[in-house]
Automatic annotation (TrEMBL):
GO biological process, alphabetically ordered: proteolysis
Superkingdom: Bacteria
Organism: Collimonas pratensis
Keywords: Hydrolase, Protease, Viral release from host cell
Domain (Prohead serine protease) ranges: 2-138
Signal sequence, renumbered to the chain: none
One Gene Ontology molecular-function label: peptidase activity
Name of the protein in its database record: Phage prohead protease, HK97 family
UniProt-listed NCBIfam families: proheadase_HK97 (TIGR01543)
InterPro entries in UniProt: Peptidase_S78_dom (IPR054613), Prohead_protease (IPR006433)
Source lineage: Bacteria, Pseudomonadati, Pseudomonadota, Betaproteobacteria, Burkholderiales
């Protein structure tokens, strides 16, 4: 967040991220989502096309590797319960200025390295805005996530509740019984739903 003095007595200036994001795009790379700044614990990735500076600070969307990273599941559970909503950046300083009177270091240009999900961010305003569920192809969601996904797709609360509680239960039961026709229908449904729902941080 721009203009907010963090717990290290540092403040990020507008424009600090622009060069680093642009250079990373040119290289065809993106930034990892880390768990608590642990470089050995990547738990997802950021959509490089979504990373930008807005009026408030650095903004972007990303996804968690729920199938592959154990800490991604902890982060996701914390995000769902709103108990873990902090974001924090890992960076190298390219340009800065220090005010001897206030003791505040202004970060003018940064070389962004990673963006972490953290329990306690240095900048208390750096937070996760929203979470979206994702249905990966061939994987079944739980009922609350499925209902939320239907709501995001434009169904009313009543419609989403009925579809999730009746339709999905039927599909789950049919799959367990080995109904190939229902499996095909489930696969088609998963493909369609996955096309409009992406996890967001």
């Amino acid at each position: 967040m721009f203009g907010t003095v963090d717990s290290y007595n540092e403040v990020v200036a507008p424009g600090a991220f622009l060069d680093s994001i642009a250079e990373t795009k040119v290289k065809g790379r993106t930034f990892p989502v880390l768990w608590q700044h642990r470089s050995g614990e990547p738990i997802g990735d950021w959509d490089i096309e979504s990373l930008k500076e807005d009026d408030h600070g650095l903004f972007g969307t990303g996804q968690l590797w729920l199938q592959d990273a154990a800490y991604a599941k902890i982060a996701y559970r914390g995000m769902q319960s709103r108990s873990i909503t902090g974001l924090s950046i890992g960076y190298y300083v390219r340009d800065s200025s220090y005010d001897e009177k206030t003791g505040i270091l202004t970060l003018k240009k940064l070389d962004l390295v990673e963006i972490s999900i953290v329990t306690t961010p240095a900048n208390d305003d750096a937070r996760i805005d929203a979470i979206k569920a994702r249905i990966a192809h061939g994987n079944l969601p739980n009922l609350p996530d499925f209902e939320k996904l239907l709501r995001e797709a434009g169904f009313s609360k009543t419609q989403a509740t009925v579809i999730a509680s009746r339709g999905l239960k039927h599909l789950l039961r049919s799959e367990s019984e080995g109904d190939s026709e229902q499996k095909a229908a489930l696969s088609e449904m998963s493909q369609r739903l996955a096309s409009f729902s992406l996890p967001q941080l």
